[in-house]
Design goal:
Structural class: mainly alpha
Strand content: under 5%
Number of helices: 10
Shape: globular
Helix content: 55-70%
Length: about 260
């Protein structure tokens, strides 16, 4: 479900960028270009896998799969029927996944033995670690107020009033920190056309690049999920929750 969502989120982003620049965007493959992501995926998977001259073979490949696996683990926090009643440490699990993901980025930047990727990796890690501290402090202030680490309890607490009205400035701060954690524009410091090119992932291509790309867009979906749960709480089993989540995804895409 999440992987399919990633395909359409990428199309949505390209459509938004097209309309912002007063052009159509993707419109050739399938109905109104909605299947463009699938054709791009087939093209990337068919690319030849070449070996770099100087790189750490095992860590080079392992770090990509580690990054994808850790990001995919967060899917267990999605509001499946009956799941959240028993998973009482959802936010704690989320913190752990965020912290572990830093190690995969370090390994990716170091294992390819490229100066560009290593400098980009240092930038990303410094940015992620520094803002994770403030992210956890802000989130823990809400969690201690509710005396729970469960997503389900957040939904029940906000039946009468959403926390976005009570903690509006905290909402703004957390949203900015989430953008920084996602390494999205205007906080994409690991990239630089004139200095680092694409940063820590410059030496990745073909299927490895697809996994990195999917991980990035899955993170956008997850961050939108957390913002919806924490500040715009509703019944997690109804369509309204997903509409709010889609609203946050649109904001992240439009900011670019």
């Amino acid at each position: 479900m999440v992987l399919l969502s990633v395909a359409f989120v990428t199309v949505l982003e390209r459509k938004i960028l097209g309309y912002v620049q007063i052009r159509k965007g993707v419109s050739k493959v399938g109905f109104m270009g909605y299947f463009q992501s699938f054709s791009d995926a087939i093209k990337l998977f068919s690319k030849e896998m070449m070996k770099l001259n100087l790189f750490n073979y095992f860590i080079y490949y392992f770090s990509v799969y580690m990054n994808f696996f850790i990001t995919s683990l967060i899917v267990v926090l999605f509001p499946y029927m009956g799941m959240l009643d028993y998973f009482n440490y959802g936010f704690l699990f989320f913190f752990c996944c965020l912290s572990l993901n830093v190690y995969s980025v370090i390994l990716m930047g170091w294992s390819s033995n490229s100066k560009y990727s290593f400098i980009g990796c240092i930038r990303v890690v410094a940015q992620m670690i520094s803002y994770e501290v403030s992210l956890m402090i802000f989130m823990l202030s809400l969690l201690f107020m509710l005396k729970s680490f469960s997503f389900y309890d957040f939904g029940k607490f906000q039946k009468s009033i959403w926390l976005v009205f009570m903690f509006f400035f905290l909402f703004i701060f957390l949203f900015i920190i989430f953008l920084i954690e996602l390494n999205r524009i205007p906080y994409d410091f690991f990239e630089g056309e004139s200095e680092l090119i694409s940063g820590f992932n410059i030496e990745y291509y073909s299927s490895n690049f697809i996994l990195l790309f999917i991980s990035e867009y899955m993170s956008i979906i997850y961050m939108s999920l957390f913002m919806s749960v924490m500040f715009c709480g509703s019944n997690l089993y109804f369509m309204g929750f997903y509409m709010k989540m889609m609203f946050f995804i649109l904001i992240i895409l439009v900011i670019r």
